[in-house]
Recover the amino acids of this structure.
């Protein structure tokens, strides 16, 4: 029997991807296929008075144009149905206008709201027709500052849902904060500002929808959760879910940006109405305008500590820009609330985490899911306290590291053994932190210009694995073992999405490990709603634990049947994670998660004090992954997460003005290239098994992202003596902080 768990097995999708044989959404084609384009609102807040499609419909080659009046149930949303599928006026007798409270579809609330879908014989004709549609707007007040939007008397963006524009308010009330500050010898107060971030996945939104030979409406488009995509499509089209099939082709990156709908419902609508295949591909500009971003936040913090370094109290206020619709703001901010204390024991905490509707692009899931923003604040506070107390940044973290018997910000102990101390020590040791702790650390090469200063920084972080707040976490899989005297093939059925992270390779390794066959004998049937149970989303760093346990359980059951001479041996298994509970609305008290993972990073950076450029030289990133099912994939996730986080902190500058996006191309929104990434990234894999994970595995996808921003700003402070509490660290911002401009 070959042992595959714990080995760097080659990715099962590698060959198809490197040879170009793998089909992505944009590669799909069918006979008789039509092409679609979407008319975006192009303005941040307005009422649509009329839509005239007559000129566009008269254009030769135009097959149909669909507007709000054509949508059976004109609403959707991953958390709440607060967004119209298509914005525009509808007759009062339309079935959309039910007696229940519903979002007004005639209002556009951000520039990327969709107004019409144009279907034509070619993409070029659809594009030409889009320009011929005439829309009459009545502009409404535009709110782009969340602090302004939450003030009494501000114009309500969703009067039917939130007259105050506040869509989320999570609270933490633990201990006695005033008493905690009275006990402190040192108090640090600061305001932090973190920006929006574009997902910038390689593959823009694209998809193909058609009605198959059995009358099943089929949508092939990249996403992160097939079954929830199906639910939203079926709801908007007023169809039974079993009449809709969602199937994912290969997915060119996601990072949370594909959790929410983009083109799926409208192409499904067109295909269902026309009974012909309909395809769409967004341009990069359409993608940047049309899908959600990472939450921008303003965070005000006050932390206290005793002379010996022990934390006594923390008081935090988060104001998050939720943008025009809810998307996952409620869940993202729930995660910010959990992680606002950092991976440390703080006896007294008062926290308020507020999400606000604005007329900006909606904010949604993005790798780290609210934890990177909280970590920037928490770790910066720790570094500033260390400086005031004359303590080493690593030592203050060791002093306060969360222990198994400590209570977290939510008032309950962590569900699994905290391993923050282990990853702090692993990162510090690999980096050689103690060896380079002198006054001139780290030394610069002799040929370095005098204006270039070097410094080092340290930060840590933690995050949940799996869904939270009372959701019954589950994942379904089926395993079929075929053969006569010997096992010939093993087929794994699981809808889990492969978004580039390597999950399907992990599932194949697990199935091969359990059944004792080589990896080549494993077949996967995945990313489909047809004949499959719910696998949940490719998010929350959850799939190794959830789908891994589901496949392991199904394979073990099938193998038992095989041993009992059942041929073929077929078994299903649904893995149910331990239960969680929601926030108490006034105190935040709860057990929100069933598993946490921990990370720590040490960095070395260079600052050119004449140009303001920041260069990341070295990153050591330590992670407790429980068990590395495939160590190469773990290292890949760490390296990729660090590069993406570096873009967030240093290069990527998402600029809007009055609700309009100014950086809607990669020529103006700059992401890291090979010339920008760190010169050296060293991944340190720490394996402390978690009882509930397959072979003790946890998750790693989001963890590398969390500590990098505060580690970099700590390194800049080490090099220059200046704290910078806002990023991206553009040259202008750095020079302003240094007093050079």
């Amino acid at each position: 029997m070959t042992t595959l768990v714990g080995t760097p097995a080659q990715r099962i999708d590698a060959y198809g991807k490197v040879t170009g044989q793998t089909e992505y959404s944009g590669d799909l084609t069918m006979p008789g296929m039509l092409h679609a384009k979407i008319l975006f609102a192009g303005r941040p807040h307005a009422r649509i008075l009329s839509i005239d499609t007559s000129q566009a419909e008269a254009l030769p080659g135009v097959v149909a144009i669909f507007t709000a009046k054509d949508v059976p149930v004109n609403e959707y949303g991953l958390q709440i149905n607060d967004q119209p599928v298509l914005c525009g006026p509808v007759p009062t007798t339309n079935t959309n206008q039910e007696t229940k409270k519903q979002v007004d579809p005639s209002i556009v609330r951000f520039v990327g709201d969709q107004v019409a879908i144009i279907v034509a014989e070619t993409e070029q004709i659809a594009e030409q027709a889009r320009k011929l549609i005439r829309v009459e707007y009545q502009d409404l007040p535009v709110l782009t500052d969340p602090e302004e939007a939450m003030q009494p008397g501000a114009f309500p963006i969703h009067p039917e849902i939130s007259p105050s524009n506040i869509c989320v308010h999570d609270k933490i009330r633990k201990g006695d904060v005033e008493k905690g500050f009275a006990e402190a010898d040192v108090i640090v107060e600061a305001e932090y500002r973190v920006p929006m971030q574009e997902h910038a996945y390689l593959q823009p939104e694209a998809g193909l929808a058609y009605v198959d030979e059995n009358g099943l409406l089929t949508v092939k488009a990249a996403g992160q959760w097939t079954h929830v995509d199906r639910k939203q499509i079926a709801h908007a089209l007023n169809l039974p879910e079993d009449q809709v099939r969602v199937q994912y082709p290969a997915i060119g990156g996601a990072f949370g940006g594909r959790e929410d709908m983009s083109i799926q419902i409208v192409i499904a609508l067109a295909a269902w109405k026309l009974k012909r295949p309909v395809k769409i591909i967004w341009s990069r500009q359409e993608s940047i305008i049309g899908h959600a971003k990472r939450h921008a936040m303003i965070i005000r913090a006050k932390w206290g500590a005793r002379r010996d370094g022990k934390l006594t109290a923390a008081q935090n206020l988060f104001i998050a820009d939720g943008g025009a619709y809810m998307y996952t703001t409620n869940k993202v901010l729930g995660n910010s609330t959990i992680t606002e204390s950092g991976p440390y024991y703080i006896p007294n905490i008062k926290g308020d985490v507020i999400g606000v509707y604005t007329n900006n692009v909606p904010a949604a899931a993005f790798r780290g899911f609210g934890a990177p923003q909280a970590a920037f604040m928490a770790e910066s506070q720790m570094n500033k306290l260390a400086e005031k107390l004359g303590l080493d940044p690593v030592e203050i973290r060791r002093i306060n590291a969360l222990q198994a018997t400590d209570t977290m910000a939510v008032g309950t102990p962590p569900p699994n053994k905290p391993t923050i101390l282990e990853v702090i020590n692993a990162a510090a040791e690999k980096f050689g932190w103690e060896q380079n702790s002198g006054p001139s650390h780290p030394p610069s090469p002799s040929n370095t210009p005098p204006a270039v200063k070097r410094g080092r920084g340290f930060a840590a972080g933690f995050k949940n694995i799996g869904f939270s707040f009372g959701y019954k976490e589950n994942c379904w899989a089926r395993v079929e073992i075929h053969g006569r005297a010997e096992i010939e093939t093993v087929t794994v059925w699981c809808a889990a999405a492969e978004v580039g992270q390597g999950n399907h390779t992990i599932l194949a390794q697990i199935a091969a490990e359990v059944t004792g066959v080589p990896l080549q004998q494993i077949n996967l049937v995945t990313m489909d709603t047809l004949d499959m149970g719910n696998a949940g989303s490719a998010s929350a760093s959850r799939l190794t634990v959830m789908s891994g346990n589901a496949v392991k359980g199904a394979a073990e059951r099938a193998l038992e049947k095989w041993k009992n001479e059942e041929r073929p041996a077929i078994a299903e298994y649904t893995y149910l994670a331990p239960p969680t509970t929601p926030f108490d609305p006034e105190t935040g008290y709860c057990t929100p998660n069933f598993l946490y993972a921990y990370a720590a990073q040490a960095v070395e950076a260079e600052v050119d004090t004449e140009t303001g450029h920041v260069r990341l030289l070295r990153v050591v990133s330590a992670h407790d992954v429980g068990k590395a099912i495939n160590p190469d994939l773990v290292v890949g996730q760490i390296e990729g997460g660090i590069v993406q986080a570096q873009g967030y902190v240093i290069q990527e500058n998402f600029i809007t003005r009055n609700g309009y996006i100014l950086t809607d191309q990669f020529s103006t929104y700059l992401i890291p290239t090979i010339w920008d990434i760190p010169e050296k990234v060293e991944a340190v894999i720490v394996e402390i098994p978690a009882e509930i994970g397959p072979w003790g595995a946890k998750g790693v996808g989001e963890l590398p992202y969390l500590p990098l921003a505060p580690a970099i700003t700590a390194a800049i402070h080490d090099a220059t003596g200046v704290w910078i509490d806002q990023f991206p660290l553009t040259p202008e911002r750095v020079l302003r902080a240094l007093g050079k401009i």
